[in-house]
Specification:
Layout (H helix, E strand, L loop, with lengths): L20 H5 L12 H11 L22
Length: 70
């Protein structure tokens, strides 16, 4: 996804999150293009590798430059 931009509605190839400006500003809210909120999506990604289990078939492993700084 494009770093530093919001509301592009791009879909992340690593977790399948759709970039939505509203959910970035309201990370607990689900609905809109993503059924679960950003915080829950991040927890899901840590647990099983995608924002929701049904999207596992669409995601790939992150490239080194896509990993968050430790």
């Amino acid at each position: 996804m494009s770093e530093g931009t919001t509301g592009t509605y791009e879909i992340c190839p690593v977790c399948f999150w759709e970039d939505d400006w509203y959910q970035l500003e309201h990370p607990l809210d689900g609905g809109g293009p993503n059924r679960v909120g950003l915080i829950e999506s991040r927890r899901n990604f840590q647990e099983f590798g995608a924002m929701e289990r049904e999207f596992l078939r669409f995601v790939r492993q992150p490239k080194p430059e896509e990993l968050p700084d430790a």
